[in-house]
């Protein structure tokens, strides 16, 4: 029976790919009028510069990791690493190109039929990204799992598969985040050095790179991170089942295969639920975007739970595993609603009101929102851990993580909707459209920001549960009967892990600052050396600027990436297995709190600025709006750079520890 279910998984993935192709054809190919078309083309060219240059550096880095793996890891682990890295990189490129095309069509739809038509086009493009990513992930993971369960691979080799995806994910979050935020700051600050040049001015050399950076940092990072977190949670649960590590569920040699297969089957059910929920969006076309998205997410959750219940009963597994999935799904919904409240509810109006007293009160209000927003999501995750463990042990905690992100296709759709709307607004502003024309898209922008933040918060919650499951699997693989927090070496590891997310955050923000200085100098050089640029008779050299910005971002990301990959192995070799276990636990706690604070505070600052734009459209020069703009600039590196990157750090450390476990026994 399990074999029959596993065979169906690639078929579900193929259905998702067919639907993505149908949606792609449905989008049409009617380009916007000039100058929107030429601006969209320039943004796409800058994006391709980042992808090609970044791809060369990524290949070189992956080759170095591959050499290290080939010396002590199994051939199955090495092959899984290479395959997953190539797959994740391919999904990133496809998603970025689809999004850039969708932005062009969204602008055309908004100009011809208004914001309602723009919403439909943006949602269709985001759905394509979600379906392609989830379908390719399901097909590949089901095939790799089948080989591990019944073929030449061992279950532990699945860790190599996750390591490849995690490496690409961190690469996109770091490189794309630095590229995006440095260009964002440059485009905003250049007016201080070049009077008369605004942020969204075609004469501004950083303006096009900023829009391309939104695709690179937000979309590419979200696609690779959701795919990797989804796969990581499934693999962690499979490894727990393969080792029989559970004090509640009775995993025996006779039913071990069924328990190992269940997380993969849940991934397939989740994709089917995502397909149905995305199609149901068109039934709510007259509803506002935020309400329609919440209903779609709820529909997917209900279908997922019904499917999981039927599979659990068919395989005659203990009912406690279904309750673990149920609590994971409920926790995911709660975390998403909490994120939406903190980033688009009363807190943003409080930040907007605080802006009336200046920049200082705006910054303080944003930080307080961020700090307050850590409590309820962490309490929700803590409750999920206790309830899932009560019903199914450590295996149940892994299943809760799987259930939280099982509908990954729909989650990525919501995460991609924001960058598409953001890119459309950027194109329109670069073309010099009237502010009134942008009101509808700006309202959608607030919704898009909140859905994107909800996706990041969901990943944070999944990472907490998955990292805990991976920590248990690591302890079992290296022969640690328990992790004793009274042991001084474990405490030292706990402290070292706690400072690591802060170190990475410092490195990212410092890197953004360094890259910004380089890009400002390049912008000023172009104004000096390109005749007619200041007068508007000539366009800036966008390709040259994109190349320079890409290399600056790639150079600056080297240190945090190297520390993240190397620190688990070094700590284990120097201080021992127990210290590494403590380090993983300390990094988990620190990263979760930092991620929630930065994601929620950064998005709240951004939406407070948008709220003032809508409520005071003619007050662009007021001190209140200026303070909100500065808060937005401060929050951008938090929500799009540091926050997502530190949570990837935890998963990468845990997977690296698993892959390196043969050296630590």
Name some characteristics of this structure.
globular, mainly alpha, 20 helices, 665 residues
Q: Can you walk me through this structure?
A:
This protein has 665 residues and is mostly helical. It has one domain. 84% of the residues lie in helices and 0% in strands. The protein has helices at 2-27, 36-72, 75-113, 115-150, 158-189, 205-243, 256-280, 289-314, 320-344, 346-354, 359-372, 375-404, 408-430, 435-477, 488-529, 542-556, 558-575, 577-615, 623-659, 661-664. Helix 3 (75-113) packs across helix 13 and helix 15 packs across helix 19 (623-659). The longest helix has 43 residues, at 435-477. The radius of gyration is 24 Å and the shape is globular.
Strand content: under 5%
Low-confidence stretches: none
Shape: globular
Q: What's the oligomerization state?
A: single chain
Number of strands: 0
Class per helix and strand makeup: mainly alpha
Mean pLDDT: 80
The number of helical runs is 20
Sketch the major β-sheet. none
Q: Write down the domain tally.
A: 1
Helicity, as a percent range: over 70%
Sketch the topology as an H/E string, one letter per element.
HHHHHHHHHHHHHHHHHHHH
Terminal CA distance reads 36 Å
Radius of gyration: 24 Å
Care to give the gist of this entry?
By secondary structure, the protein is mainly α. It is built from 20 helices and no strands.
List the SSEs and their pairings.
Blueprint: H1 2-27, H2 36-72, H3 75-113, H4 115-150, H5 158-189, H6 205-243, H7 256-280, H8 289-314, H9 320-344, H10 346-354, H11 359-372, H12 375-404, H13 408-430, H14 435-477, H15 488-529, H16 542-556, H17 558-575, H18 577-615, H19 623-659, H20 661-664
Helix pairs in contact: 1-4, 1-7, 2-3, 2-5, 2-6, 2-16, 3-4, 3-5, 3-6, 3-13, 4-6, 4-7, 4-13, 5-6, 5-15, 5-16, 5-19, 6-7, 6-12, 6-13, 6-14, 6-16, 6-19, 7-8, 8-9, 9-10, 9-12, 9-14, 9-18, 10-11, 10-18, 11-18, 11-19, 12-14, 13-14, 14-18, 14-19, 15-16, 15-17, 15-18, ...
